[in-house]
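Hi D.,

Good news: the full-assembly prediction came through. Inputs first.
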Amino acid sequence: MKINLRVGLIIPDAEAATVKITLLRRLGYQGTLVDVRKERLFSIEVEDGEDPAQLAQKFAKELVNENKESYKASFNELKFEKGYIPVKVGLHIEDGEAISTRDRLRNRLGFKNVLGVEKATIWKLYLKGENQKGLARDIAEKLLINPHKDSYEILG
Amino acid sequence: MKIAVMQFPGTNCEYETLTAVKTVGMDGELFRWNRPAEELGSFDGFVIPGGFSYQDRVRAGAIAAKEPVMDALREEASKGRPIIGICNGFQILVESGLLPGTGKIDMALAQNVMIREGKIVRRGYYCDWINLRHDALPRRCSGSFLIDRDALLQMPIAHGEGNLVTADSSLIKKLNDEDQVVFRYCDDHGRTVDEFPVNVNGSTESIAAICNPEGNVLGMMPHPERAFFAWQMPSYDPRKHKPDAHGPGRQVFESMKRYIEVNA
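Then the structure:
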């Protein structure tokens, strides 16, 4: 089973704001881009057995700083709200942070049922006009990824 | 001879770099990213210093690479003017397509991965003094114009993303064949060892610096401006205590000056 934690800031997100400003002012998306938001995604593969909702809460206690972040949990499938195009960006080379997170959860924090961790960034692109998925693809390739280390997926 | 030391939000080595530029006898001034980009045309050379432009948002160098001043630098590079990118400056040059020099993004400087005896022993940010071997011929590259092949230099590194990776399987061969690899991490004897701590960040073939095919654009992860004066050297280095000695990083700035004189 896979537990997905989508973690977003509840304080202003400077990185998302910088991406929005760069897309508007430098890359010509004035007529089509409305807003940009961002979430960190932890997809944690666990052995079946424990109640997934409770397990998600336990993981969130370790991975989410409630002073500045909130999270949404889903199980197996990633689910998104309407109104934006979610673009998932992750490394296609070895992801050291994901490996460290897996090892910390398993070896230091006692989650022996953790099989693997995948980390990614979800860019939530609020777009207007036609062919929004095409636009999202364009934005990913122009700014959000370096193809020599990152890959992306248009979700939703 | 006027050098623009570029300053983006988050750059933090601009004053040391400017001091190095001026000490070797060039004129220099800080050039803020939001100045009219066309003013760059009045300069003879450019240095993009280290730091964390735009706080490394999205990934190191990605946002600065989209600034209008980088379009102007692309134009200046095409005229043969020298550009040296140090650390974050190297990352910006890669993200803007100025290095390796095809105009598109041909490689990435990914997170450091330190490997010893087949095991990952450390990841991410690391700072230390390292040895560099100059692999290019003298006069091949603006920032190493005066440096002999196989010369050894000691400089500090301080970065989290300096691991050269590429999905283009032919790129490394091309860099080697065309003499675009300028510096490699090496041991005290000049030998490359593809293991931490000699290959300090896991970079492919221990590459620490590359130039474009024309040789006027150089990107390097180590900091020559932090090894410019002998007193900046680590305490175990005998040069530190010799008042007339120069630090090895000075050769990079002297090279740039000579490159401009020769190509004027």
